[in-house]
Design goal:
Helix content is 35%, strand content 26%. By secondary structure, the chain is an alpha+beta fold. Strands 1, 2, 3, 4, 5, 6 and 7 form a seven-stranded antiparallel β-sheet that branches. A hairpin with a 2-residue loop joins β6 and β7. It is globular, with a radius of gyration of 16 Å. The N and C termini lie far apart (43 Å).
Length: 172
């Protein structure tokens, strides 16, 4: 199963709207040259989990059927960058994204990041939030509207990576 593409796995394990929404997001990743890999060691080795990178920097993470069948979620990357602050998104997309901010409600029982107690205050797309989990944003079983939002959010992450790679190369 390791050699299968994300699309093959999605077709094999998800059904209905879950499948079509996940396939739509997988197509977005491919079209935007966001490469995904499955870890083969550690906690994620026996799970259906993908690390999605652009230019060797993480953009997002996709997990399928982690806790129950016919489910999937996508988390953002919080590498300490300010991309969440700086991203330019329209208000409709921001509103949808804000609903997916991963607020830690019980840090003793955190299942999102495994780092209870590491929440912080963050500015995300122009709005401040308290007790934000280190994964920052998590789209759980996203519907078609949320998938469109995810595309914009993770396109902003990709653009941040590209813009900062240019600055690092001295091509400012």
């Amino acid at each position: 199963m390791r050699e299968q593409t994300m699309e093959h796995i999605i077709n094999d394990v998800l059904t209905g709207d879950m499948r079509s929404n996940a396939l739509e997001f997988a197509a977005f990743l491919r079209a935007n040259e966001i490469v995904y890999v499955r870890p083969d060691t550690g906690y994620w080795a026996d799970k259906i989990y993908f690390i999605c990178n652009h230019k060797d920097q993480s953009v997002c993470y996709v997990s399928i059927n982690e806790h129950e069948d016919n489910t999937w979620y996508v988390t953002g990357d919080d590498s300490g960058d300010t991309w969440y602050e700086d991203a330019i998104l329209d208000e409709r997309i921001k509103e949808i994204a804000w609903q997916s901010i991963d607020i830690c409600k019980d840090y003793n029982a955190c299942r999102s990041c495994g780092n209870p107690g590491k929440m912080s205050r963050k500015t995300i797309f122009g709005k401040e939030f308290d007790n934000v989990c280190p994964v920052t944003i998590k789209f759980t079983n996203p519907d078609a509207t949320a998938v469109e939002c995810m595309k914009k959010v993770f396109e902003a992450r990709k653009n941040y990576i590209l813009n900062n790679a240019i600055k690092l190369d001295g091509k400012d």
